[in-house]
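Hi Y.,

Following your request, here is the sequence exactly as I used it, all 537 residues.
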Amino acid sequence: MKNKLYIAALAVSSITLLSSCEDFLNLKSKTDITTDYLTTSPDGLYRAAIGLYSLDRELAKGDGSGGSNLYIVTMCDYSTDIMAFRAGTSTAIAKLQNFMPNNSDVESFWQHYYFIIGKANEIITGAEQLGFDDPVTTRAWGEAKFFRGRAYFELWKRFERLYLNTIPTTVNNLERDFHPVSTEQIFTQIKTDLDDAVNALEWGIPNNDYGRVTKATAKHVRAQVAMWEKDYDKAIEECEDIFRDGTMYSMMSKTGDVFNSADMRSAEVLWSYQFSENMGGGGTGTPLMGHRAAIITTTRSQANPDCTFEAAQGGYGWGRVYPNTYLFSLYDKEKDNRYKDLFIHTFYYNDQSKPNYGQEIPKDLYGKAAGYMERLHPMSKKHFDQWTNATQPDRTTSFKDLIVYRLAETYLMCSEAYFHRDGGDSPKAIEYYNKTWERAGNTHENGPLTLNMLLDEYARELHFEGVRWSLLKRLGILGERVRQHGGDLMLEDPYLDKDYAECRQNFVLGKHETWPIPQTQIDLMGTNVFPQSDPWK
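Below is the corresponding structure, written out as tokens. Let me know if you'd prefer a different format.
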């Protein structure tokens, strides 16, 4: 089914080139697919909505262009208390060093989501003008509503100061002033869009096109929004609706099972970016590029003496982004199966022509040199790929699907909502906490819960899944936690050659909880119309 989704996505931008000089002024399309067609017919709206998936997946594209780092930045816990950074990928954000309004990743993030908003506006307006007699139109409208609401939510979490745009851009409205609007206005728009998406989407995946959002996906994001507003009743309602449905989503036997495949298609996955080596399966160029999440989070073990590329060790690794010592300290290393299933802690000589083949590589191989951090540091397996690169382990990109939302987060979010509303003795808070805690092999927790217990379980279960940064910010403890645990010190990891804790040292309270408005956008809109965020002036 991946082929259908990808080929449809390609159709969004497919306008046939004119075939000869004589036809140059003939504006009649040689195909049925025109810009007008995409917003004035049910089939066109379907194609345009599919295009939103391709656009959103650009966060993770592997061709080295401006947006390709953004999945790593947002999903791999940059500038939080559970990630250690070596070098190379979005360094300014990871280290909070020379992080300025002219940062290219910040610019790409802003443009990425506002571009999605612009395309969603066209679909939403086209559907509303067409009417909802055809369920295909309703579905496309619901998907566009989801993408627009989610885009504003992602933008607000990072920037807070935004402008609202809910109409298509045409030649008649090109010149507009975009003034900052209040948080209340932004959240009203987000909630309206997500509520509309919930009502328009089905529980099941349409046409078995895996990777499409469903009612459960929209409810999950709507619950996230409710948590920000401290509307715990609404968060509980949305989460428990997903639990009650029972037709699509359920927990796997172990967390490791979710990630033990190239296809993120288990019953626990609410939404994932789909990748394939087929046409349209992710990235451009020859060969197709896929994404780089795997190699960025994979230790560069192939560079050790007497080692070579091996799929079972993750293939090609750059060794840039790692779980830190603080995260590892949160696990019961004997009981908690996630400690073994979600990480590689030890590497082995794998060149079969060498006498030490199969032996463990000592962690102190490099003494106090930099080799350990690059070539032997323990790594996460969530984006690890031994499947799509099995026959070519030295390939520098991956076609493993990438997680976006997972049911485990829904359970922990619901547990937290009950905790805030009813206290640590809440039976429901404890029940939902145990969904992930007990599954990992730990002894049943009887409570009472504390906020620290919840924070630790979020980290153990959902690290490198885009949850930590916004969770800590929402609770008002992002700076506090980063300054306590961000990165790693030599005192914490004895094999390090130096401290890798720049984010811990550089985090400025009251500033680094937000990103600066991109300077290019300030210049375009005018400082007097759209001033820079106060902490970044």
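The chain is about 45% helix and 5% strand.

Thanks again,
Q.
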